[in-house]
Amino acid sequence: MTTPAIDATSADFARPDRDTIERLAKLPAANIGDAMDRLGVADSAIQAVWPGAKLAGPAFTVWTRPGDNKGIHAALQQVRPGDVIVVAGGGDESRALLGELIGERAINLGVAGFVLDGAARDAEALGEIGMPVFARATSPAGPYKDGPFRLGTAVAFGGVPVLPGDVIVGDSDGVVVIPREHAAAVAEAAEAVFADETNRRQAIVAARN
């Protein structure tokens, strides 16, 4: 039985408040992972495609056939400013799901970034325009554009379950996923982890001096 490829209500999910997202955005992904008992950390192969890329925002989920980006184009018609587009692409590394052109469109829409369980391309250009992209690999090979896909559904991303509205944080260590209903509590716990590590680091430096 064939199911619809696009759910018109897929953008109408609850998102955490902006203050909570901003608190999480200031914290290292490692501290957030520690605060969640090391759960919610995506496969370490998924990394920033350009140095210094960082992102934080609610997940807008895309489930797509490996190597196919028709769903990403559909997501760009529904995504809201500040969202992170999370693409469950089956871990395929043979074809890039997006590059500079989609990055430019996403900037115009206020997208916070992309995390791909798949490949990207135009890594240097994405860095030049400042669009954060985290991916499993880079490849010059372009994508298929045939579908099928689903938007706004639960997905498996790098070994972690992601629901629409969960908070995605990415930095130089990788990507973590914070369940939306626990986002404020995780922010508080991660801030405590960060403060504790800062104090211990200062004590170590003081002892050396």
What does this protein look like?
With 209 residues, the chain is an alpha/beta fold. It has a domain of 139 residues: Glucose Oxidase, domain 1, CATH 3.50.30.40. The protein is 31% helix and 27% strand. The chain has 6 helices and 11 strands. Strands 1, 2, 3, 4, 5, 6, 7, 10 and 11 form a 9-stranded mixed sheet that branches. A two-stranded antiparallel sheet has the order 8-9. α1 runs parallel beside α6 and α2 crosses α6. The longest helix is centred in the C-terminal third of the chain and has 26 residues. The termini are far apart. 46% of the residues are buried. Its EC number is 4.1.1.112, 4.1.3.17. Homotrimer. Its cofactor is a divalent metal cation; Mg(2+).
Radius of gyration: 17 Å
- Which stretches of 5+ consecutive residues score pLDDT under 50? 1-8
For this structure, what is the CATH homologous superfamily of the domain at 39-177? Ribonuclease E inhibitor RraA/RraA-like
Q: Number of DSSP helices?
A: 6
Bin the helical content: 25-40%
What general form does the structure show? globular
Quick one: CATH class of the domain at 39-177? Alpha Beta
Mean pLDDT: 95
Order of helices and strands: HHEEHEHEHEEEEEEEH
Q: How can the largest sheet be summarized?
A: 9 strands, mixed
Calculate the terminal CA-CA distance, rounded to whole Å. 70 Å
Q: Can you count the beta strands?
A: 11
Can you name the CATH architecture of the domain at 39-177? 3-Layer(bba) Sandwich
Proportion of residues in extended strands: 25-35%
The helix-and-strand class reads: alpha/beta
Instruction: Write the CATH fold name of the domain at 39-177.
Output: Glucose Oxidase, domain 1
